[in-house]
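Hey,

The postdoc asked me to send both predictions to you directly instead of through the lab channel. I've kept everything plain text so nothing gets mangled by the mail client. Protein one:
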Amino acid sequence: MNFAFSEEQEELRSAVRRFLADKSPESEVRRLMATPEGYDHAVWRQMADQLGLQSLAIPESYGGAGFGFVELAVVLEEMGAALLCAPFFASAVLAASALGTCGDEEAMARWLPGIASGETIATVALVEDGGRWDLDAPGSVTTKARTSGGGWVLDGHKSFVLDGVVAGLVLVVARAEGGLGLFAVEGDAEGLSRASLPTMDQTRKQARLELSGTPAVAVGRPGEAVPGLSRTLDLAAVGLAAEQVGGAQRCLDRAVAYAKERIQFGRPIGSFQAIKHKCADMLLEVESSRSAAYYAAWSAAEGSDELPVVAAMAKAYCSEAYFHAAAENIQIHGGIGFTWEHDAHLYFKRAKSSELLFGDPAYHRELLAQRIGI
């Protein structure tokens, strides 16, 4: 087993890092998070046409580049460091994974090429107002799917839908006869209404959807979606863990740089033991979280049976490591760090929203305990 990145993977990292340094400085993050759509159309096209990022982990047979989850984790780590404002995670990670695990060849051939090219922005609508990510929890999914005129229609609502306002394709989890199903809804479908949610972290837009007799297409067999959705959530947790590592590393870098340049009592504050210990603890957590995220990404790429266990472990640990790094970055910056205008708060807010996305650390620890038989 080789945990070193290949030369090609390192070149990918360098190319993405250069691109994001140019296209996603913090001034641009602040501009985009204040817009209704939350992303730059021109940059989205460049991501697809110049770097092929949206196609990276999609099989070549469906218009993708055919790389694996390790390469996707490399890209997500860099995006997390840059706080990229774009529907990449919703479309190229979450929705692409849902289609890739559904077992429906017709659905994959119909929608994956558009996601790969960047022409289609897709997302998954799973959670409702209760905020439960547990597919087996009673009442977690109340949106109903029913047959009508030879097709399907949906009734209900979904909350916390990533990039739900701009998505041209929404994969909705709904309850059909016999169990949960996955259904594709076009963004302009009749009976679909969408509204942005005023969340704390506006670098990643979320929406609430209302479905009223909304026409839909079944993806896979209605009532048999749970295995594919469970794997989709595991893959999403691994991708988010990689993104969290990037954000945590950026917080550490900023904290260390400030500790070296900020002078108090005639010496850099980094020379004081309390600050040294904070930075050392952050370094330990960042490196440990990186190891967890990389191993989980390798497990996803290899189709390992360990994926459910390591996905839960990585999401729990990386969530806490990122939030702690973001909070300590503010502490080390002192008074200026506590102002909302300081860039440290962009990472703090992203760290908090990422901590809760797909379930908080306590939820994933419970998943981990269940999956290892405790």
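Protein two:
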Amino acid sequence: MMKGQHDQRVRIATARMGLLFCIFFLIACGLGYPVLNRFDPRQTPGLSDVRTYAALVTGTASADAGHVRFRVLVPWLARPFYRCAQGRFATWDPVMFGLLVADSLLVAGTAILIFIMGGILGRRLVNHDVGRSAIGIVGALLFLVNFAVPNLRLVGLVDAGEGFFLLALLWILSAGELWALPLIAMLGTLTKESFVPFSIVLTLGWWFSTNVARHEGVARSRRFSSSPLVWIPACWVLSVATMIALQWWISGGFVSPLQFGLALHRGDSYFSHFGRSLLDRNLWYIFLWLLPTSIPNLTRLPKSWTIPVGAMAIMAFGLDAYFGGAPGTVARALFSVAGPILSLSSALFLLPIQSQSHEAVGRSGK
């Protein structure tokens, strides 16, 4: 009897999660609709990489695309939707339709993970079910309405994939399901090469926080069901091996990760580039409201989340300075690594305001 009730609760929870994913997916599609026939990101300054991703979707990418042609997962995911759309959707661009669907799936997946992690956070901080679910819902919606999602995630770039797999990595570590790390490592590396250093820093930061800050209690009973000292190095090795194999398959020759990384160096003065990155308007469009509303409650989040995310944020500035990234590059990277967690912290800031407003309205109505 108890087993049957448990199975029924699991089915109901799964159905609700599926419905929520569909809603998030449709929201993302709506936010990204302009790329179908309002403007062409391939002709937009600052979005030039979209041309390469579109060529990967159609199978026409050339060696001139450089390292961008190794970011294959999102274009592969977009390809069946592109083929389905050819000649069927009137004025909609079939290539951009495929990329929009692929990016929307990944954005919706990220929103679902934010919702789930909001539930984990809610169990630590809130005593009633409504409050627990509210943190996740508000956090996911704040993520979706951020400037970065419609303007950078849903325009044919691959950042939606990198952000999703980095958050999935953090969620898997928090849940203690370390056996899934190699799979995420492979998929993340196929999405974007910067996933490799980010994932190494993330897993190191998580290991440090869970071994030094042992007062954290997220999924404590399951966290060490598998040895981190086995699965985390395996994750690193598989990421690097996947990158080498992918480049060998596409370019036809072996390129060492060190050689590949050195070839990407275009930075001039680290300090001057850092200054330009801080003044980049894309950075402020994304974080102008997100940082002030999230900082007050960051200490309420598990250190096993904030320490890895903080370490990745520092690395994002370092990589941007090393690569000499174009304007907007560091903003996109920072939102990939920190956007979901900051959205949850921002939800903790906004929810009490909403409760206090209801109480004030109730008192004034008496």
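Summary for protein two, as requested: The chain has one domain: 2-364.

Thanks,
C.
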